[in-house]
Design brief:
alpha/beta; Rossmann fold; 2 domains; 5-stranded parallel β-sheet; 5 strands; about 60% helix; elongated
């Protein structure tokens, strides 16, 4: 971002049926360095625009033919299809009284055209735009708990479902899908790439199912610890995918790693899956090795699920 133009990345939507006001706002916004400005002549057009795009600021007239500016603001705040219920809204009006009070109750910034000069309007615009990025950061925080605000979790809390049942309902579908994915990978490996398979199907699924227990337990723990889907995905990537890829023996031999890294690999569930898969494909069933690795993975999974259940109880309380 250009330090001389802090507004260069902002996108603004203006909804006003007055040609004069659209021209005035265009001049003001471009004078502030905002080039990404879109104009519509009615609230209905603004609704259609907001279904396909997400501006950083909506400037709307209060009184327009058909749907009013307040109706547009209510649509932004409360509609099920709204892309951003926390969009910053700046309302223009030449009308005082109850409508203006109601607009303020909607937490909108109101400009009174009849008693404000263009200079005052520009000053208000500058103040609104200066706070726009702060508003966006606050909106992101609110979006983290959007599922809670929509009442989904409250509805679950109103049922007799326990934390263990809630986690089971989340885990079982992914467990089945993961085993189906494992089956597809094995079929492709054996019949397309010609990889030898000298072990048994039972051993393969026992290893895979045991590995899924800590993997899904870690996912449930992350899900219970954060309400933000994006944050949860980033934590999962850093704490699960990358260690499984780099510290499991899949890419690099664990014995060739520095001693401290070798100790860290002890807590990586994939470390106990990779030797088992190599054995079941290339050597056959060696159950003493399998049972040891399966026991470790189940132990890690039990710990992670216990922590997830405990954390979920606290959040549902």
């Amino acid at each position: 971002m250009d330090e001389l133009n802090p507004y260069e990345t902002l996108r603004v939507l203006v909804a006003d049926d007055s040609d004069y006001m659209r021209l005035l706002l265009r001049t003001m916004l471009r004078g502030l360095g905002i080039d990404a400005v879109d104009f519509v002549e009615s609230a209905e057009q603004a609704v259609r625009y907001l279904r396909r795009a997400m501006p950083d600021l909506l400037i709307t007239d209060l009184k327009m033919p058909g749907m009013s500016g307040l109706d547009l603001a209510r649509h932004v705040r409360r509609s099920e299809g709204s892309l951003n219920p926390f969009l910053s809204v700046l309302m223009l009006t030449g009308h005082a009284g109850a409508a203006e009070i109601e607009a303020l109750q909607q937490r909108l910034e109101v400009l009174r055209e009849e008693k404000h000069s263009a200079t005052a309007m520009l000053s208000t615009l500058q103040g609104q735009l200066a706070n726009c990025e702060r508003d966006l950061r606050e909106a992101e925080k609110k979006m983290e708990g959007f599922e809670w605000e929509r009442g989904t979790m409250e509805a679950i809390m109103a049922t007799p479902v326990t934390a263990a049942e809630l986690l089971a309902g989340k885990v079982i579908p992914y467990f089945i899908l993961a085993l189906m994915s494992t089956t597809l990978c094995v079929v492709i490996a054996v019949f397309v790439f010609g990889v030898p398979f000298r072990g048994s199907i039972g051993a393969l699924y026992a290893l895979s199912a045991a590995f899924l227990v800590p993997s899904l337990g870690q996912g449930m723990l992350i899900s219970a610890a954060t309400k933000n889907q994006f944050l949860a995905a980033q934590i999962a990537l850093i704490s699960a995918f990358m260690p499984a890829f780099l510290l499991s023996g899949f890419l690099f031999e664990i014995g060739s790693m520095p001693r401290i890294i070798q100790w860290i690999t002890v807590i990586v569930p994939a470390r106990y899956l990779i030797p088992g898969l190599q054995t079941v494909f290339l050597a056959g069933d060696i159950w003493p090795l399998f049972l040891r690795d399966i026991a470790v993975m189940l132990l890690e999974g039990g710990i992670l699920f216990a922590l997830a259940i405990r954390n979920t109880k606290k959040r549902l309380a």
